[in-house]
Amino acid sequence: MTKLYELAHSRAGDKGDVLMLSLIPYEEELYGALREQVTAERVKKHLQHIVSGEVERYEMPNISALQFVCHGALLGGVTTSLGMDTHGKTLSYALLEMEIEL
Amino acid sequence: MTKQRGDDMLRIGSGAGFSGDRLEPAVKLAEEGELDYLVLECLAERTIALAQKRKKADASLGYDPLLEKRIRSLLPVLLEKKVRLITNMGAANSVGGAWKIIEIAEEMGLSVKVAAVTGDDVLPYVLSNRDSIQFSPALNESADIVSANAYMGAASILPAIETGADIIITGRVADPSLFLAPMIHHFEWSMDDHDLLAKGTVIGHLLECGGQLTGGYFADPGKKDVSGMASLGFPLAEVQPDGSALLTKLPGTGGALTLRTVKEQLLYEVMDPSAYITPDVVADFTSVQLQEDGEDRILLTGGNGRKRPDELKVSIGFDAGYTGEGEITYAGANAVGRAELAGAIIQERLEDEFEELKVDYIGVTSAHRGAFDHQGTPYEVRLRIAGKTYELDKAKRIGEEVEALYTNGPAGGGGARKYVNEVVGIVSGMIPRGNVEPDFTVMEVEAND
């Protein structure tokens, strides 16, 4: 098993209570493997303690990247959340904790 | 290299990615970038609601708190190099911001023409149509709405550009529109050419966060190394009439502009990449192509679009009371055990008074909520307690209770801090375009020789 951190990078964004996480392989050849294994279902399960709603996945073959849109991830949203990291900016590294088989 | 206006290409620099951004990268871009336009994006969702509150307290305020500093450092070089500035530093009071710029120019003995874009403030409309607007997330009926600003598009900025003003200052407009407007003006793009509007929107989206395109918010030592981050160079785009662009930064500045940094920024804050919605267009990012063209040079082509939506998004601020916070650190043997005891004590004393108390152990659970266990016990941990209330005194109590752990709590607590912050909540809604009426005001000052 290999941690996504070793294979890919990610940046988190937010809109209201929605968290967006990109997943970009360092080597573009790995895009297929990521697409195969890092499904919306797996991400939802991986982030179950953080994301309460649905997870959608968008494919970007033009830049060999995936985008995950996670609903109900920011404790009610940036402006009224009591969390430390109200924007969920650190959560890109939560996604990169996931392990896959190469 | 000499710049000729009216040349085919247009050079646009991005000098700020948020209200609190560094000051000097914009000055450097204006000095050395051979720019036609410099754009400063300084307005987050919450910033404008807070600005409305400042304006309520003093009608001459409500523009960006750093406006004066930024303008003082930029104005001489902007005028000398004939770089036009477009910025949303007007926040809740673009006219007030424009007057401030005039005042600064007078003081500095400079001539300047400023155009202030108005019309985004739709608070009266939202208050009188509250029942028919669908708020997302839902808004409590009793919530006290303090601001409502529509995201206006490039069309609201164009008339101000056409006045020939040196500085165009806006309130709430969509961030990419700040960049798209000068492209439409310069290349005379049709407002119905959805593909060109989409291409310009992609460029604007990539530039709007300043250093986030050039290695800022990207670095991870050993994995994603970026050099010279203390003097990060901000990005600029050389835009062609067909909407393709070269993204680059100034030679000799820190940071990096690579396929990797551009990919991260292309997807930043994007929901559906095939339908990125702005007031100008619905842009499809899945046809964008990126290509390396030497060091710190990325060629951007592709991207297409569909007709803009009939409604405009409105960002609505409401009074959400106060948050109170308290923090204290424990270190050494059993640090976690002592911090947890402290957390339990505070919970017992305050849980009846607060609907929700957030108890975080910084160093253990605060950011990822304890979802992933790492081996080992942290040597030190910081307890943080946070709660929300509409009563200021009650909000203060949280920090006071944490501070009182000094003499009443577990052994070895140190570094207690307490905070109280006013909270403005934000929800969004959609309103018909016809209810938003963009306008502008021009003001000018001539220096005495």
Automatic annotation (TrEMBL), chain A:
Which is an annotated Pfam family here?
A: AtuA_ferredoxin
Name the record gives this protein: AtuA-like ferredoxin-fold domain-containing protein
* InterPro entries assigned: AtuA-like_ferredoxin_dom (IPR056362)
Q: Where is the AtuA-like ferredoxin-fold domain?
A: 3-101
- At the top level, the lineage of the source is Bacteria
